[in-house]
Write a structure and sequence with these properties.
Pfam families: MerR_1. This protein has six helices and two strands. It is an all-alpha fold and 228 residues long.
């Protein structure tokens, strides 16, 4: 039963109460409560299951983790670091021995939620709650996160391959520069050989000119001697 403010008189919450508290579709709230059931303080079974006010803190932690966690396992790991399996925060659980509570065992209420105000706290809007798009179902969100993980892995592989190709390209560029240096040296050698060849040709031409002059003089002298 609910009082005139819509709060259950026994302080327990339904899926609809949790969904209304965070502005979520009931299907989304139901998924969170089932998926992370080990951290949800509840009583009853099946359709009679009701949740203690401490479940609001767990759902709020789930919504916060969903903003950055890659998958449901990562969200569960964060919950495990903050909540015990009996859904009491590790920092405020008194007498907790690290073992899950036995079925039917009494689960203490959160110290921060007095019994007389637990119902109101369950229904009052939470300013610290993280807004989540109501139209996005958890299954789709987790599938999207996993797809993003695969995409990031493909990008990482592509970057690694690109880095290897860049290293190979750098080696090829260095080799090409070495070849260019060798070609430049060969060009210098060819230029020097051309200079030497031109100088040699000039010297040979000068020698030939001198030889012609000398032979011409000798021939002229012999002709004059023959005439005389």
């Amino acid at each position: 039963m609910h009082d005139e403010n819509g709060t259950r008189q026994d302080g327990l919450l339904t899926i609809a109460d949790i969904a209304r508290h965070f502005g979520l579709p009931e299907s989304t709230a139901r998924y969170y409560c089932k998926r992370f059931a080990p951290f949800m303080p509840s009583v009853g079974e099946g359709r009679r299951r009701r949740y203690r006010p401490g479940a609001l803190e767990v759902v709020e932690a789930v919504l916060d983790a969903m903003q950055t966690a890659r998958n449901a396992a990562a969200v569960e790991a964060r919950l495990a670091g903050r909540f015990a399996r009996n859904v009491l925060p590790l920092s405020s659980a008194s007498g907790y021995d690290g073992q899950p509570p036995m079925r039917g065992a009494h689960t203490p209420e959160l110290a921060s939620v007095p019994a007389e105000t637990a119902g109101m706290a369950a229904i009052a809007p939470s300013r610290a709650s993280v807004p989540v798009a109501g139209a996005l179902l958890p299954e789709a969100a987790l599938a999207l996160l996993e797809q993003q993980n695969r995409t990031l892995a493909c990008i990482a592989d592509a970057l690694s391959s690109l880095s290897a190709r860049q290293d190979e390209l750098a080696r090829l560029v260095a080799h090409a520069r070495g070849v260019e240096d060798e070609l430049a040296g060969l060009r210098r050698d060819v230029g020097n050989l051309r200079i030497l060849l031109n100088a040699s040709e000039k010297m040979q031409q000068q020698d030939l000119d001198q030889l012609r002059t000398w032979l011409t003089r000798i021939i002229d002298e012999k002709r004059r001697a023959a005439r005389g």
